[in-house]
Amino acid sequence: QVQLVESGGGLVQPGGSLRLSCAANEFTFSNYAMGWVRQAPGKGLERVSDINTSGGSTYYGDSVKGRFTISRDNAKNTLYLEMNSLKPEDTAVYYCARRISGTVDYWGQGTQVTVSS
Questions:
Q1: Range 25-29, long-range pairs (CB < 8 A, 24+ positions)
Q2: Rounded CA gap, 93 and 23, in Å?
């Protein structure tokens, strides 16, 4: 059974930073593109960032471009999202997602990020 377990969320002040991690288990992590998706309160899902299997190609949504950095460590089966210059509008549940053929086939349980003073 595919397992994606996020960690690293929490409460941070505007302008602060957080680093999310996603531990992947029960599949060959290096064979899959991965990504992060978020859902803000009362809103739909938003594609945040993706990374290809080697880490050499990335995508960022316009709302996070220049502030967030996605990376992966295939030796550790772990996906990361470094979030800087956080804004209140970044408040959301962040989900780690496995991607196949451009779509998401598995999600983690999510980690809450709250940006507030």
A1: 25/77, 26/1, 26/2, 27/2, 27/98, 29/72, 29/74, 29/77, 29/78
A2: 17
Calpha distance 117→114 (Å, rounded) = 10
Distance CA 15, CA 74 (A): 30
**How does DSSP classify residue 32?**
S
- 33-39/10-12 β-pairing: unpaired
**Beta-bridge partners for 12:** 115
Give the tokens for residue 81: 């999202």
Q: For the segment 45-103, what is each residue's pLDDT rounded down to a tens digit?
A: 999 999 999 999 999 999 999 999 999 999 999 999 999 999 999 999 999 999 988 89
Q: Is the dihedral of CA 65, 57, 55, 2 positive or negative?
A: positive
